[in-house]
Write a structure and sequence with these properties.
Rossmann fold; alpha/beta; binds zinc ion; 2 domains; 11 helices
Length: about 325
């Protein structure tokens, strides 16, 4: 579903009226372990807001017990076309930090201007961004647009973790030692994940893989694979008949065995292409959200499931 810029702004404006109306309302409930006499457990002091699941994973691992983390994208919903409710905007204004990826979710980019949080951390800072044309094999790219799916590269996730750790540590020096230690453990897990991809994809019969939408360009770049996406950068955009025909041609040429689909968008197109070509279909998860049907309970586990799926599809030994 597409919403117009005008509709988004209108929604934002009415949310701001609501926000102004409740500025003197009841303060949000804050629990304090110190006041209830709990000395052993660290107090959750930070209120972090994240824009989508991969950032929730990073924030929880980095902040640990020092924060509560709120995800603006509800579990099981697709993050690209996120719309924010008035309550979410109000919470954002009261948040200690927003962690987001600029250019990924228009509603979040707009909200940042309207309701600036105390600290805005763009997790894509310092990452070498790909443009959508590179991801979509010649599809027309909007000027200045970039591919936001940076989290599907474990190497990018290391940079993102360090960006978040540095920003939070600078803003809250009393928590820096804890944040730094948590980040070190996270980085070790991400490097180990990357190592398993490097070795797992080193010797494969095929390099091409067909995906539901163009989410895997960073992963493909890192591990020497070629993505053939059915839909573009935005999972909610329907592929054209011409693109579907093109994907069928490319899939036949490259001898792929499997057409991948996702957990959060309809598998109908991917399954129909697979059916037409007599190929298998399987899940390759862009990890835009975790649900009970995800092949794992967190980023690391679903990335391992993705590796297994890629190895099977591409005949990796
Ligand atoms: Zn996506």
């Amino acid at each position: 579903m597409k919403i117009t810029q005008g509709a988004r702004i209108a929604g934002l404006a009415s949310a701001l009226v609501l926000l102004a109306g409740c500025a003197n309302g009841t303060p949000s409930a804050t629990t304090s372990a110190a006041s209830s006499g709990g000395a052993a457990a660290p107090t959750a002091t930070l209120k972090l807001t994240v824009a989508a699941y991969p950032l929730e994973f990073l924030a929880q691992r980095i902040a640990g017990d020092t924060a509560t983390v709120t995800n603006l994208t509800a579990p099981g919903t697709e993050p690209h076309d996120l719309e924010l409710a008035a309550k979410q905007l109000a919470d954002l204004g009261a948040s200690d930090a927003l962690i987001y990826i600029s250019g990924f979710q228009a509603a979040v980019d707009d909200a940042l201007q309207a309701v600036p949080p105390k600290l805005a951390i763009d997790a894509s800072t310092g990452i070498s961004l790909l443009n959508p044309a590179a991801a979509e094999e010649g599809a027309a790219a909007k000027p200045g647009a970039h591919d936001p799916h940076i989290w599907l590269s474990p190497a990018n996730m290391v940079t993102m973790a360090q960006t978040i750790d540095t920003a939070l540590s600078q803003a809250h020096p009393e928590l820096a030692a804890t944040l730094n230690a948590n980040t070190d453990k996270l980085v070790a897990d991400l490097k180990s994940l990357s190592d398993s991809y490097t070795s797992g994809l080193a010797t494969c019969q095929r390099k091409d893989f067909v995906t539901s939408h163009a989410a895997f360009a960073y992963l493909a770049r890192d591990y020497g694979l070629t993505q053939i996406p059915i839909a573009g950068i935005d999972a909610t955009e329907e592929p054209t008949a011409a693109r579907i025909a093109e994907v069928q041609k490319l899939a036949k040429q490259s001898g792929v065995t499997t057409i991948f689909f996702e957990t959060l968008v309809s598998p109908a197109v991917a399954k129909s292409i697979a059916g037409d070509l007599g190929l298998k279909s399987a899940v390759l998860d862009p990890i835009e959200g975790i649900t009970s049907s995800s092949a794992g309970t967190n980023y690391l586990e679903v990335m391992q499931s993705n590796l297994k799926a890629l190895r099977e599809a591409n005949g990796c030994s």
